[in-house]
UniProtKB/TrEMBL annotation:
Record-level Gene Ontology MF annotations: 3-hydroxyacyl-CoA dehydratase activity
EC class (word): lyase
Enzyme Commission identifier(s): 4.2.1.17
Name of this chain's protein: enoyl-CoA hydratase
Cross-referenced PANTHER family: ENOYL-COA HYDRATASE, MITOCHONDRIAL, ENOYL-COA HYDRATASE-RELATED
Species this chain originates from: Hymenobacter rubripertinctus
PROSITE patterns associated with the record: ENOYL_COA_HYDRATASE
Lipid metabolism in keyword set: yes
Domain of life of the native organism: Bacteria
Reactions performed catalytically: a (3S)-3-hydroxyacyl-CoA = a (2E)-enoyl-CoA + H2O; a 4-saturated-(3S)-3-hydroxyacyl-CoA = a (3E)-enoyl-CoA + H2O
Amino acid sequence: MTPEFILVTPQARPQVALIQLNRPKELNALNLQLMQEVAAALKALDQNPEVRVIVLAGSERAFAAGADIKQMAGRTAIDMLLIDQFSIWDQIRRTTKPLIAAVSGFALGGGCELAMTCDLIVASETAQFGQPEIRLGTMPGAGGTQRLTRAIGKARAMEMVLTGQSISAREAAQHGLVNRVVPVGQFLEEAFRLAHSIAQMSPVAARLAKESINRAFETHLDEGLHFERKNFYMTFASEDQKEGMAAFVEKRKPDFKGK
Ligand code: CAA
């Protein structure tokens, strides 16, 4: 089925796929169908052997202005519980390939949370990150209180979540929320550049390394180190590790096949 609210380009660049949120009139507000489309596209691209890295972008004006307020406004708590619209986000989190958010303009509420669900964030100078839900009489519900706190620390996360005030791309970079900030005309190209440099690496090693970094947020140090060590040993089962080390010894560029 052709998605209605996103555009998917499996080979936007060699080995790099692009998912573009495409609900411009609503500033890419994340309704349930849009999120289901994103999850389905990510699953397909995750299984596509031609794809090594995925870029998730919005438009220049808005990455996403949050969950769809109009869709949620009249719902009861029991509606919310039964629809459980944020459970689809767990599928996004299961993407094994590196996922880069290319953010310009508004990244608010669920938009900020979606960017933080990605592994890396490239921001344009106009990007604004915020969790304004408190102004609507509610709070972040798609990971904001957890991921923002881990990314920028308790004091800053408290201030953003309790006042609803946004931070600029520069502030987000200073606080470690985003990887880099570029002029607005370049944010997508910069995301592709970053994706390209990751796509040159062994996909097997990238997957295991991503899994290990994410484990750092879910466990204590001893268990995390054990997990990392097992994944490190696991890379030695790949042809890519043999190729990478042979190429170093032979003073040539490695050719990683993802096996
Ligand atoms: N849901 C539904 N529609 C939205 C939306 C949202 N989150 N954000 C913007 N829109 C719609 C507007 O209603 C408007 O539609 P109409 O033209 O039909 O009125 C259209 O997009 C353009 O928006 P504005 O006219 O408001 O544009 P602006 O430039 O004046 O303001 C903005 C932009 C500051 C982002 C403003 O739209 C805004 O404050 N949006 C809401 C941001 C927000 O509160 N997000 C959190 C949502 S709750 C959430 O995300 C929960 C969670 O944890 C997942």
